[in-house]
Amino acid sequence: MEKSRLTGIMQHAKIPLAVALILIFGFAIFKISAKDVKAETEFDKMKEAASHCTQPSATDPECMESFKKLQSSHRDAQRTAQEKVGIVGSYPSNDFDPIEYLSTWNYNHLPANERSKYYRETKRADGSLLREYWIYAEDKEIEIAPGVFFPAWTYNGQVPAPTIRATEGDRIRIHFENKGTKPHTMHFHGFHPSSMDGSMPEDFVYPGQNFTYEFDADPFGVHLFHCHSVPLKQHISKGLYGAYIVDPKNDTRPKPNKELVMVMNAFDTNLDGENEVYAVNTKAFYYTLNPIKVKKDELIRIYLINIVEFDPINSFHLHATFFDEYGTGTNQKPHTYTDIISLAQGERSILDVRFKYPGMYMFHAHVSEFTELGWMGFFEVAD
User: Fold this and answer.
1) Residue 39 domain flag
2) CATH number, domain at 324?
């Protein structure tokens, strides 16, 4: 009876048992053959090398050999990267010169008769100046990398806008005209009446219209101005911004030998809400192709502004020396001595730097992605 029941169970179990044996055999074949599959990715190669060296005293001859091959491939990749490093192409357009922009404010690069179309100053009774500017918004395609053009919104046809500079207590009057296709404004960081703020819907200047901004230059420091129309992120990312510098009336800081305006910016070329090109003063790698020329031991004052949209933080790192930083420039004594600072959007600082040795010195964002997408350059230091 028991023997008959056992035979019956075995007869009923023949098919599932056969299936189980096939599965076990197939799995074993898969495991064996899997060992022969060549590692495809770099990560797979690293795992494969490590599998031969699982013990500190491993004697598997493939242990060192596999790591030698891996190191060799790394060296080849590194050598290739070093050989290929550099900027491809050149800038065919010359309507905006980032070298000239560095030391240009109040249109001081133009001949007197041309300058008077955009800037005029009149002495007032108290000795201060009335500084008048003629600024317009305009749609314009600009070159942001060699052969790469961007449909920008500009002030006076350039990005960044022409730099506005005054002395504490001067009166600023801006005759603004909107020649663009969207409502635009000018919003200044600093002190002014609410009617001059340019940030509310009732402040929007529509295409074909104009408005006059007027206020006293205050407080001293390095500031900025930008369009405050909506959507704000679009009006900033498309290029409507510029530097606004107010010098102290009684300046106790050391007098610089050279002054430079540097606006850290970026461009969303495919309009996906992320930047593809990064720069200082708009043209990617421009100061790599055209290093900024300075002299050993001279005092260089940098007016640094971060206006990058879509990225929460940006930074400025200078090689082989340190600088004094005046945060926002509103104090005449530096608050730190360093070689790198980080700035959120709209933050700015004044940096005073000297180079001890002649040579070529890099400056760049310490966010490596920004550097490799255009945000880097060189100071060429001469004796």
Assistant:
1) no
2) 2.60.40.420
For residue 195, what is the DSSP state? G
337: phi then psi, degrees, rounded to nearest 5: -130, 110
Alpha-carbon distance 66 to 72, whole Å?
Answer: 10
DSSP string, 135-151: EEEEEEEEEEETTEEEE
**What residues make up the domain containing 123?**
98-382
CA–CA distance, 168 with 216 (Å, rounded to integer) = 8
**Average pLDDT for runs of 10 along the chain of length 383:** 41 44 42 45 63 59 66 56 65 93 98 97 97 98 95 98 98 98 98 98 98 98 98 98 98 98 97 96 97 98 98 98 98 97 98 98 96 97 97
Burial of 379 (0-12, 13-18, 19+ CB in 10 A): buried
CA pair distance 96, 191, nearest whole angstrom: 30
Sequence-separated (6 or more) residues with CB below 8 Å from residue 14: none
Strand partners, 263: 305
Longest dimension (CA), the chain: 127
Domain count, the chain: 1
For the whole model, what pTM was predicted? 0.81
Long-range contacts of 329-337 (CB under 8 A, 24+ apart): 329/220, 329/221, 329/222, 329/245, 329/303, 330/219, 330/220, 330/221, 332/248, 332/251, 332/252, 332/253
Within a domain: 263: yes
In angstroms, the CA 165 to CA 177 distance is: 20
Q: Secondary structure of the chain: what % helix, strand, coil (to 5)?
A: 25, 35, 40
Asked whether residue 299 is domain-assigned, the answer is: yes
Q: Distance of alpha carbon 381 from its chain centroid, rounded?
A: 24
**Is-contact 175 133, C-beta < 8 A?**
yes
